[in-house]
Design a protein that fits this description.
Blueprint (H helix, E strand, L loop, with lengths): L2 H10 L17 H8 L1 H5 L29 H9 L4 H10 L5 H4 L7 E2 L5 E5 L4 H6 L6 H11 L8 E5 L13 H18 L3 E5 L1 H7 L2 H4 L3 H4 L3 E4 L8 E6 L2 H6 L4 H18 L9
Parallel strand pairs: 2-3, 2-4, 4-6
Antiparallel strand pairs: 1-3, 5-6
Helix pairs in contact: 4-9
Length: 283
């Protein structure tokens, strides 16, 4: 196989970037990048004196946070609870250094849609296109999502859309449990500030992050199709949450669209019961 064909095959398989053991700041000056990768050391002449051979240079890991600054879920919860507006929450998340995904992502992907939406959609994590655009669900999966909700009379101006993890994991992999744990306080605070009537959990990652413990042991095929109550800190009442397939899964498995359509009909009926005077137009 020719080299170009091999590279093209890797891209088709989803390997759209080369990963190293430690994240590198691509925005750093060229000299800093050379020092981090050991290229500068490789270009220096080797002395002939009887000096012990130098150890191979290691790429230095960029500091994830200033020295002495606490991080992790506890720090994320403290920051999130201190935010009284969505704007303040977005600023706090942009400055948060307790999640290593921030070092490899292009930017924070905060949210999209109405700040007072009655329905809030929760995805898993940004992909490559979302990472570049800074908005959730803008790629092919997002286009399908728009069509799905348009079929029951809803568009983005009536929805709030966010992800469990607001930074893209390298290679579009699923976020780890530790990454979800450190990002979850920010999502919970955003839900509390929006105060929707209902949640839609798109995919297994979102469902298992937000649903109660007994439900987390089940797969998305068992979880989808029915509302389950979710407790959100800062809200007086539990929110009904509907789990369904992620649009990216539907692109890979079109046969599952029939089940997703039933889920959408359940959501439409529930919204009609919540807001009898709302302007849900026929799909």
């Amino acid at each position: 196989m020719e080299l170009i064909e091999y590279l093209r095959l890797q891209v088709e398989f989803g390997a759209d970037e080369f990963l190293v053991e430690t994240p590198l700041d691509r925005r750093a000056p060229p000299a800093a990048m050379a020092a981090a990768t050991g290229e500068a050391a490789a270009s220096a002449p080797m002395p002939e004196a009887s000096i012990a051979p130098a150890q191979p240079a290691r790429a230095s890991r960029p500091a994830s946070r200033p020295a002495g600054m606490p991080a992790g879920p506890a720090e994320a919860a403290r920051l999130a609870e201190s935010c009284d507006t969505l704007e303040a929450l977005a600023r706090a998340m942009a400055g948060f250094t307790g999640c290593s995904l921030r070092d490899t992502a292009t930017q924070l992907v905060f949210a999209d849609g109405a700040a007072d939406a009655q329905t809030m959609l929760i995805g898993e994590a940004p992909g490559g296109e979302e990472d570049r655009a800074g908005r959730p669900f803008v790629g092919p999966a997002g286009q399908l999502l728009d069509r799905m909700f348009a079929s029951i009379g809803l568009d983005r101006s009536q929805l709030r859309i966010a992800n469990v993890v607001p930074w893209r994991p390298p290679g579009n992999r699923n976020p780890t449990d530790a990454e979800i744990a450190v990002c979850l306080p920010f999502l919970l605070r955003q839900i509390a500030l929006v105060a929707p009537r209902r949640l839609v959990l798109l995919g297994a990652v979102a469902a298992k992050a937000l649903l109660p413990e007994p439900d987390r042991q089940q797969g998305i095929r068992r979880l989808r199709g029915s509302f389950r109550d979710v407790a959100i800190p800062g809200l007086p009442d539990k929110l009904p949450a509907l789990a369904t397939y992620h649009p990216a899964y539907l692109l890979r498995m079109p046969a599952a669209k029939a089940e997703s359509w039933l889920d959408l009909l359940s959501l439409r009926q529930a919204l009609a019961e919540d807001l009898p005077a709302t302007s849900l137009t026929p799909g």
